[in-house]
Amino acid sequence: MKLYYSANSPFVRKVTVLAMEAGIDGKIQRAPASVLGPGSEVAKDNPLGKVPCLITDDGQALYDSPVICEYLDGQLGGGKAFPPVGPARWAALRRQALADGIMDAAVLRVMEGRRPENERSPAAQDKNRKVIAGALDFLEAEADTLGDPKGAADIGVIAVGCALGYMDLRHGGDNWRQGRPKLAKWFETFSQRPSMSATVPPG
Ligand SMILES: N[C@@H](CCC(=O)N[C@@H](CS)C(=O)NCC(=O)O)C(=O)O
Q1: Which residue from 8, 5, 6, 3 is spatially nearest to 72, judged by alpha carbons?
Q2: Which atom of ligand 1 is nearest the CA belonging to 63?
Q3: Model-level pTM greater than 0.85?
Q4: Atom 15 of ligand 1, residue of closest alpha carbon
């Protein structure tokens, strides 16, 4: 299998953490994609021009990260990270969606900050900040349900860990831990999992 990646992408990190937790990371070769978007090399396989994109051994291109994670877990990893149909599954998928939403808004803030100053939208930045803050508040409120940060990790908590890691990487100035002590404590221990410490983004 081949995984198109960029080193700091939180979505790529989510895929790698899941693969490590499942013990199948060694089956994945990595292809750096430094240029993204239309016309890029990855766009030949993923018309959206985004990473992560996984090319399976039978030549199928899979995207986006939730699809890749479900493939790796279900096809090769023994199905530990995606619970079977039932309440635990919907809770894990909903939590992944929430964490992916934090990542989306956090990435948009980075992209916006790279635009020429006269093209930036303070309203868009403000909206993305509020989206992130609201989602983090929600996670703080449900922090007691995140489970043992040293125990089994489903796709929901893996995604939350990667979203928080990306906040530290790109938006440290937000001080997301402030006012969110339970989430901060959970993340402190979750970050120490070998899959998390091995995938700290270089920045
Ligand atoms: N929903 C996608 C989001 C992936 C994404 O936004 N990737 C970013 C890198 S962090 C990207 O490739 N951006 C390139 C672009 O938007 O042109 C997923 O879960 O994989």
Answers
A1: 3
A2: 20
A3: yes
A4: 37
Residue of minimum CA distance from atom 9 in ligand 1: 9
* Centre of ligand 1 from the C-alpha of residue 190, in Å: 24
Nearest CA to ligand 1 atom 12: 50
**pLDDT for 52-102, tens place per residue?**
999 999 999 999 999 999 999 999 999 999 999 999 999 999 999 999 999
Distance of CA 114 to the CA centre of its chain: 21
How close is the Cα of 99 to the center of ligand 1, in Å?
14
State the DSSP string of the chain.
-EEEE-TT-HHHHHHHHHHHHHT-GGG-EEEE--S-STTSSGGGT-TT--S-EEE-TTS-EE-SHHHHHHHIIIIIS-S-SSPPTTHHHHHHHHHHHHHHHHHHHHHHHHHHHHS-GGG--HHHHHHHHHHHHHHHHHHHHTGGGS--TTS---HHHHHHHHHHHHHHHH-GGG-TTTT-HHHHHHHHHHTTSHHHHTT----
Angle, CA 98 vertex, CA 92 and CA 103 arms, to 5°: 125
Residue with tokens 């985004």: 50
Contact between residue 53 and residue 2 where contact means Cβ atoms under 8 Å apart: no
Burial class (CB in 10 A: 0-12, 13-18, 19+), 130: exposed
